[in-house]
Amino acid sequence: MRYWYVSINNSYKHRGSNVRSIQMKQEHSVVELTEEATPKEIDNCKLVYLGRGWWSDKHIQDNYNNYVGRE
C-alpha cells in the first residue's frame, strides 16, 4: 500500500527512501510515498493527503479529482 499526496506548490523534489514516485504536473505534483509524510514535509511542500492504497482506488481518484476541480 502507498500513501498519495498532492504537492500544491509543486516543490516536492525530495528523493528519500520513502519516495516511490513523483508525477510533475503544471500546477502541482502527485507524490507516492511508502510511508506517511512527516509534518515537516507536509508544511514545506504543502502536501494534501489523497489517501492510502493504490492509485486506481476509487477514494484516491475521487480525492484527486476533487482537488483538481478546485484549481
Describe the structure in brief.
With 71 residues, the chain is an alpha+beta fold. The protein is 28% helix and 34% strand. It has a four-stranded antiparallel β-sheet.
How would you characterize the overall build of this protein?
By secondary structure, the chain is of the alpha+beta class. The chain has helices spanning 39-45, 58-70; strands at residues 2-7, 19-24, 29-33, 47-53. Strands 2-3-1-4 form a 4-stranded antiparallel sheet. The chain starts with a strand and ends with a helix.
Explain the layout of strands and helices.
Layout: E1 2-7, E2 19-24, E3 29-33, H1 39-45, E4 47-53, H2 58-70
Give keywords.
71 residues, alpha+beta, four-stranded antiparallel beta sheet, 4 strands
Rounded mean pLDDT is 85
First and last CA, distance: 27 Å
Largest sheet: 4 strands, antiparallel
Low-pLDDT residue spans? none
The largest sheet has its strands arranged as 2-3-1-4
Radius of gyration: 11 Å
Written as H for each helix and E for each strand, in order along the chain, the element string is EEEHEH
- Determine the number of helices (DSSP H or I, runs of at least 4 residues): 2
Q: What oligomeric arrangement do these chains adopt?
A: single chain
Query: How many runs of DSSP E, i.e. beta strands?
Result: 4
Strand content: 25-35%
| Molecular shape | globular
